[in-house]
Amino acid sequence: VIRGGRRFKVSIFDLVVGDVIPLNIGDQVPADGILIEGHSLSLDESSMTGGKQV
């Protein structure tokens, strides 16, 4: 994560509000969040919503 402008490796259990999580292709994030930036993005929320892929 990026926290306070510095990069850290943290467990998913140690994520806190305000952490920025850089993602790569295929990454999965088991947390709620806000997308800050992205391109050519595809999300699959079906495991949470039971709906189709967006």
UniProtKB/TrEMBL annotation:
Keyword Magnesium found: yes
Subcellular compartments: Endomembrane system
Entry's Gene Ontology molecular function annotations: P-type calcium transporter activity
Protein's organism: Taxus chinensis (Chinese yew)
InterPro entries: ATPase_P-typ_transduc_dom_A_sf, ATPase_P-type_domA
Top-rank taxon, per record: Eukaryota
Signal peptide: none
Protein name from the UniProt record: P-type ATPase A domain-containing protein
